Amino acid sequence: MSTFRLRWWPTPPAVLAYGVAILSVTAALALALLLEAWVQSAPTVSLFLCAIMFVAWYGGLGPSVLAVVLATVYFTLFMVEPTGAVAVDGHDVPRIVLFILTTVFVILLSAAQQRNAQELVRVNKALLAEVAQRRRVEAYLDEAQALSRTGSFGWTPASNDLFFSKECQRLLELDLDQRPSFDDILARVHADDRPMVHAVRERSDAGQPDHDYEIRWRALAGTSKILHVRAHRVRLQSGEEELVVAVMDVTAARRAQEALHATEVALTHAARVATLGEMSASIAHEVNQPLAAIVTNGAAGARWLDRQPPDLGEVRSAIERMIRDAQRASEVVQRLRALARKAPVERQPIDLNEVVGDSIAFLQREIQTRRIVLKSELRPGLPPVVADRIELQQVVINLMVNGMQAMERVSDRPRLLLVRTSSETGSEAGQAVLAVQDSGIGLDSASLTRLFNPFFTTRPAGLGLGLSICRSIVESHGGRIWASTNEGPGATFQVALPLSTERIA
Amino acid sequence: MSRVFVVDDEVAVREALDSLFRSVDLKVDLFASAAEFLQYMRPDGPSCLVLDIRLPGVSGLDFQDELLRAGIRIPIIFMTGHGDIPMSVRAMKAGAIDFLAKPFRDQDMLDAVAAALKRDQQMREAESANRALREAYERLTTREREVMALVTSGLMNKQVAGELGLSEITIKIHRSHAMQKMKARSLADLVRMSESLGLQVAKSRRP
């Protein structure tokens, strides 16, 4: 960068400056005397002014004042009659005064110019410092963007003007020489995500200032990236609207999240199957009962047919019972299959009471065998929650089985299991709460804190995964699960789930 | 009239058994629990109990024990969803007629019920015969009972006379009265009756 160098030397030492002043004025005088001798014409005043200007320019105010004094002395000595004396004639006074005024004017001009020059130098320095600072900031920004894999670009919809940060170019793999337009950018977005981008643009046009969404981006190598996009609409001082957009490459994070989620789903499924395994005797019984009834009804029906005369009324009712029982067996099997199925998680608004009812039906046999007194207090008209039916059922079944297991060794009091649903007001407003209360052995404070940790169990045969899986299911639904000890014997487990804003489809 | 009592908490199974038993002209009473069965006043007559081994509240096996302790002698056929050997052994030892795994063949169930009812019939007949015998015995005089006991233990009239310090003629009279009252046609008949009644042979007072 070039600078406005007004003086390419440093301020000269005073001795030198004054020396130069004396020398310059004396040289001007000498030149004037020489010229007068040879050319009969003496541009003495001009030469003195030149010398004074030079001194002012070179040495500053002090030396130039000296030069003026010296020049005035020389002028009165050599150029004004009588030469060689300080005496001045009356008619020469105006000449001398004019000469002095001229020199003072020259000095003042020069000083003003010096001041301007100095000011210019100062401003220039400040400008350079600011430029350097900006460059550093820019470098930091580039570095930070590269480190955080966050690129940014600005877009002025009115002029369709796009500006990309370095990291953004790298991230989006853009060739800026092609001067990509907004439509070129859009073409690189995964086809399925384009409608979303359009929707965002419409919302932005409608005045929504902030946007936050994720898209899949077509990378050049035929792969795709997942980009987290945050946009903010700003009004520039010029009155133009600009969208400032930050783009983050979250591909690795999303992939890891997906892998984690897949593992969680597999684990949840495994735990469900394990629960089913634990209840296999009970389940087999539940299927076997209707089957036994069907076989016996069939035999009875055949016998009614064989009678003389056949009793068709009895045959009909035997067949009707067979149909009823077969349907029941099939319902049991379907319930089982639903629980054992490895289905993708499907969230929709569902009725929590219905899920609790299904779970109770599923555990009916277990409840009887373990001699549990089951009470359910289901709040009528509970608004739906958004959840995966099977996962939620798994949570309810798990909590109920847990409660029943906690009462295994209880013989001096009723084995009471209370299942309650409610929708909370106050701090839990907007949530449905499920409580499963047992009258079992209860929880000590040490257990309370570790209850939901994986592999924590109080049962010798327990895996210690049930509650930890319950927690991961509940939390993935944006809910909360906690345990507390009862006033009386036993413990209560509670689950709070956000209510859906939609009605059940 | 023969009667079958069915105790099962599963309504589908109860209804199916009800139809099956009625199709072969058996009277059926259905109960959902052991307690319900106990409260029921059973009409007299040959009967049997078809009992599910897994009942709410009390297990079928415990209920069997309970009935035995209460002196209710009724043949039991067990049904089970998943029978295991120790369970069936225990049930059979305690006098169960059969142990059928659900689902069972109708013929197996009907055979078991027929066997149970037959056994109940026999038990009832034996009981009523015994009752008649006991009533006859009650009508004997003390002396006649003494003579009956000694005679049926194998002693000669003379020996009995010696034993009781009576004449042989007197013994003969007591003995014929006793046989008449007991409706015994022969000495052998009287001996069998004595056995049925469980009479203890009086110990010889002489060495």
TL;DR of this structure?
Chain A is of the alpha+beta class and 505 residues long. Chain A contains 14 helices and twelve strands. The mean pLDDT of chain B is 87.
Write up this protein:
The complex is a heterodimer of chains A (505) and B (207). Chain A is an alpha+beta fold. Chain A contains 14 helices and 12 strands. Chain A folds into 4 domains: 14-125, no CATH class; 149-249, 2-Layer Sandwich (Beta-Lactamase); 256-344, no CATH class; 345-505, 2-Layer Sandwich (Heat Shock Protein 90), CATH 3.30.565. Chain A has helices at residues 14-39, 44-59, 61-79, 93-148, 166-172, 182-188, 194-205, 251-278, 280-306, 312-340, 352-369, 389-406, 445-450, 466-476, and strands at residues 150-156, 161-164, 210-218, 224-235, 241-249, 347-350, 373-378, 385-388, 416-423, 431-437, 480-485, 491-498. In chain A, helix 2 (44-59) packs parallel to helix 4 (93-148) and helix 3 packs antiparallel against helix 4. Chain A is rod-shaped, with a radius of gyration of 49 Å. Chain A starts with 13 loop residues before the first helix and ends in a 7-residue tail after the last strand. Mean pLDDT of chain A is 84; it is low at 1-6. Chain B contains 9 helices and 5 strands, in the order E-H-E-H-E-H-E-H-E-H-H-H-H-H. Chain B has 2 domains: 3-128, Response regulator (Rossmann fold); 139-197, Orthogonal Bundle (Arc Repressor Mutant, subunit A). Chain B has helices at 11-23, 34-39, 60-69, 85-93, 106-138, 142-152, 157-164, 168-182, 187-197; strands at 3-7, 27-31, 47-52, 76-80, 98-101. In chain B, helix 6 packs across helix 8 (168-182), helix 6 packs across helix 9 (187-197) and helix 7 (157-164) packs across helix 8 (168-182). A 5-stranded parallel sheet of chain B has the order 2-1-3-4-5, sandwiched between helices. Chain A binds chain B through residues 281, 284-285, 288-297, 299-301, 303-304, 307, 311, 314, 317-318, 321, 324-325, 328, 368-369, 371, and chain B through 9-10, 12-13, 15-17, 19-20, 22-24, 54, 56-57, 79, 81-82, 102-106, 109.
